[in-house]
Input
Amino acid sequence: MRIAVAGGKGGCSKTTTAINLAIALNDLKKDVVLVDCNFTTPNIGLYLGVPFVSKTIHDVLSDGLNLNDAVYLHKSGVKLIPGNISIEKLKDVEPNLLNKKLNDLNNDFVIMDCAAGLGKESLIALESCDKILIVTNPEMPAATDALKTIKIGEELNKEIMGVVLAKRTGKDEMKVNAVEKLLERPIIAIINEDKKVKESLVKKDAVVNVFPYSDAAIGYKRLACYLSGEDFVDVKKEGLFKEFIRFVFGK
Output
């Protein structure tokens, strides 16, 4: 299943969501590959501490490389196809080949991190996916761009899986029901503003890896369970219980 993680507005946590969703699905024993479909400003490699690899999505879309030959196995166990941050590599990329190249993959989930905006890169990714996961923030500019993305997805006859509401603080922002009413789509995950997300970026890893009991990590794990049809286990409560048992019984 190819899932495009999109939303329109830059900075709304599309890449963070794509990365953490992919790793959370991998933790559920799903066969997952994460593809950077942001050819102009690819960030997956930077976020995960692998900014330079020998083969990237840019090589696939310019040199006729098989997509499987550009798969990088991250230390978390998830498979990545990052982009090349060099401007020179961008010159020869043929984005229109993306849909055809994605046929090389035979994974349970192909998570596609889309570019910001609704330009050619984003549209090609949306055309190449099976389903679209919308990411937005509880603010009008982001929600408006998310609505535009939904409308384009409908025109392309793509299934909108639902909305991820990221960076929610609960203060001076749109209410959850107001976002749902505007987008006419259910919010299937709420990722509250969490400083652990920024700390994980400093550590060049996903928040589900380095801070597995954080609110954001729990939110992404819930999302992965929802999309894969698995039962969610509250690892935070489970972890606290284990700590209690260890403290009381020394085990």
About this structure: The chain has a mean pLDDT of 90. The first helix runs from residue 14 to 27.
